[in-house]
Amino acid sequence: MELVPSPRDRRLGLLLLGSSHVMNTFQVRPFSNSIEAALVSLSLVLLCKMTPTLEKASYTPDLKFLHPYLYQSYFVHLLAVIFVIGIFTRPTFLIFGAPIAYQVALRTITSAETATRWLQLVVPPLFTAAATCVALIAVDTLYFRGILDNLVVTPLNFVKYNFSFHNLADHGLHPRWLHVFVNLPMLIGPCVLWLAVRAIMEPTNLFAGKKGEVDVISRGRGLEGQCSQLLMFYLPAVIIHMIVVSLTVLSVQPHQEPRFLVPLVLPIIVLITNTGRLARVSRTFWV
Fold first, then answer.
1. Could you identify which of 104, 174, 215, 276 might form a hypothetical disulfide with 178, taking C-beta atoms 3.0 to 4.6 angstroms apart as the criterion?
2. Minimal CA–CA distance to 185: which of 9, 22, 17, 14?
3. If pLDDT is split at 50, 70 and 90, which confidence band does 27 have?
4. Domain span at residue 132?
5. Is the residue at 2 inside a domain?
């Protein structure tokens, strides 16, 4: 609901997501990639939930029960925790989450009236992130060492291992184009990939012809509808940046497995669903 405002498009998006072989294989098992994908999706949802307080136009009486600053700060704290857990799950989470973090930083800067107010909004979540990091290091160290000695920093070990060419060679070396031309089409299907490419090539037309529908939703749902209107201006850009940045960075590594791209499945489906093109595809597409 937070990611796809139109009920009709949401049903089609859920059908496409539920019929994905990725959802019925990877996402029903506790792979680190599956957990990473869930955390990326949750981060997008939290970003959308904090949308009403990121734009001054949405400071309406609907929020009179909660000060906008507290509302915004609450979701920034949650995102800080999710980001740390995501990085400890797989440091590649930072690649997928970078556009989300950039959007949060940008929106908090534009919504804060003074530099002091921005620091008050941003600094406490940094302490929350640091506390979460310390807690996870302590848990990992106790699990692997038994005592809090010789600390185990999981993301650091992950990076050290994967920067070793010899370690990667043990798992197999692949051409740099494998993610783009083989792994991604394998995960989401060539037809879905074509729809995603069209959406990326025409980002300004993502919601063409749907403004009236979004306006109806807005009038009928109050604050949620306002969130939907604001959402349509920047969510496509966030997802497009996520796709481009993650494919670029992950393609630098010579070891490329399809599961590394699992976190892109839901964002890509959200992107093409919000274009309204799923309602216009042929029956052959669904078959």
1. 174
2. 22
3. very high
4. 7-286
5. no
